Amino acid sequence: MRNFLNLCCTVATMLFVGQAALAMQDGAIDEVAESKRFSGLYVGGGVGIAEGDVFVPLYAGLRYQLDSGWVFGAEGLAGIFEGDDPATNLLNVDDVVAVLGKVGYTPDNRTLFYGGVGYANGSVDINPDLAGLDVSDDGDGVVFEAGIEYLVTPWLGARASGQLYLLDNGSADNEFGAGAVSIFLNF
Question: Model pTM?
Fold first, then answer.
């Protein structure tokens, strides 16, 4: 079985290298470099910090780049928070989901500066010992995001972003920030 897997990997590598050589010979790489790199589907994930906890965002989106460099899109985000300390944290967020509209600008077709706003829903627990009330509920609200992306290749990029969540779960308003670095794939 191991020999079969090695053979498959070798054949796949040879095909990839051969296709890359043909593409460079035909000038296809130059065409990709001049194309709208920030158009299409993308998926990504990363790690960051929010309210002293580890924040793991996963996201997917669709965007369109104009000839002028402006980029418009929509993104869905799901974030998981790990490391809550119920004894010391007034606000404990377990998870959050969001849908954002985004606008950005790329001056060089490799770097994208963007901002976004959208709807967010989070599972929020408020510490009864610190707050004097026992609340554990979903909170609805708004999320604001700003960030920068850099394309290492036309298909692979890195992102640094920050979000501000304003959630209301009926009993209390919850405001918290999150920042993360991540990688993403363009399709």
Answer: 0.73
What are the two backbone dihedrals, phi and then psi, of residue 7, each rounded to the nearest 5 degrees? -65, -45
Residues 128 and 181 in one domain: yes
| 12 and 93 together in one domain | no
The C-alpha atoms of residue 156 and residue 158 are separated, in whole angstroms, by 7
Q: Quote the number of domains for the chain.
A: 2
Do residues 100 and 63 make contact, with C-beta atoms less than 8 angstroms apart? no
- Per-residue pLDDT tens digits of the chain, which is 187 residues long: 344 334 434 443 443 444 444 444 444 444 444 688 999 999 999 999 987 789 999 999 999 999 999 999 999 999 988 765 555 555 666 789 999 999 999 999 999 999 999 999 988 666 555 555 555 667 889 999 999 999 999 999 999 999 999 988 665 667 889 999 999 999 9
How many CB atoms neighbour CB 105 within 10 A?
16
Q: Are residues 20 and 76 in the same domain?
A: no
In the chain, which residue ranges form alpha helices assigned H by DSSP? Answer: 2-25, 28-34, 128-131
Which has the closest alpha carbon to 93: 80, 105, 104?
80
**Domain containing residue 115:** 36-186
